[in-house]
Amino acid sequence: MQYKTLLLEIRDNVARITLNRPEANNAMNMEMAQELMDASIQCSEDSAVRAVLVTGSGKMFSPGGDLKSFAAQGDNLPRHLKEMTVYLHAAVSRMKRMDAPLVVAVNGFAAGAGMSLACAGDITIAAESARFTMAYTGVGLSPDGSSSYFLPRLVGMKRALELTLTNRILSAQEALDWGIVTRVVPDAELLPQAESTATQLAAGPTKALGASKRLLMTSWSETLETQMEHEAQSVTDMSRTSDTRQAIPAFIEKRTPVFKGQ
Predict the structure, then answer these.
(1) Mode of pairing for the β-strands spanning 131-133 and 109-111
(2) Which residues pair with 52 in a beta bridge?
């Protein structure tokens, strides 16, 4: 499918989603939210997709919502936002819950919904020049796109409150120190390293990676015993997969297993 606000390329088991509204610095409007949802569904339904890489075109990842499009709504803005968040939230949920790991490569500024996408990445790589800010309260709005869920889990409640209430701008190094990003790389190395990471993950045991993601996400709300039962059920399910059945003998025989995501 051809998109107007995104570029989607699937190659070597990696789906590459590029936010692509250069005229608006990749700000998110209704059309982008809809297309992100569609792309997330396409990725989750395509068995060839075993990792997803999200980045922004040009010099900016995303400044968040397209304020010009919001202003044009007038009194219809509440209805507009209610619909737009349906698509954005469905996209984030689908990408977080699919087996394929989500790699986010942040170039330039990530604010608002752009910050939310950065927080949602399973692995988030930032260029040295990247900057991060919540931004929502600066225009009288509150967070969306998952940041109120992920940010406190990444940085702790006090720091999450500071970032959300003051809109403090973090450098890439500060975002690394606070646990928002996985690593920081030179600007010229951002896409090569993100591609390498996504390719490495795409060659892994996809079902086991997905199961591991889900276990870690549920661990925040479960008791120890309940979480261990989830672990027991999950590891048992994974033992039935083709990948596991060939990987264990390969390990014993000191061979490199070849995972097919099955």
Answers:
(1) parallel
(2) 15, 102
Query: Six-digit token pair at 61?
Result: 């990842």
Are residues 217 and 173 both part of a single domain?
A: no
Please say if 144 is a catalytic residue. yes
Contact 241, 205 (CB under 8 A): yes
Domain with 131 in it: what CATH number? 3.90.226.10
Prediction pTM value: 0.95
> With 0-12 CB in 10 A as exposed, 13-18 as middle and 19+ as buried, what is 148?
middle
Nearest to 62 by CA among 16, 18, 110, 118: 110
Full domain range(s) for residue 24: 6-202
- For residues 46-51, average pLDDT: 96
Q: Which residues pair with 127 in a beta bridge?
A: 185
pLDDT confidence of residue 261: 87
Per the annotation, the verdict on 89 as an active-site residue is: yes
- Cα distances from 176 to residues 60, 119, 179, in angstroms, run 18, 12, 5
The answer to whether position 260 is within a domain reads no
Q: pLDDT value at position 251?
A: 87
Could you give the number of structural domains in the chain? 2
Catalytic residue among 38, 80, 89, 187: 89
Task: Give every strand in the sheet of 109-111, ordered side by side.
Answer: 109-111, 131-133, 170-171
Catalytic residue among 66, 122, 144, 243: 144
Q: Which of 227, 78, 197 is nearest to 142 (CA)?
A: 78
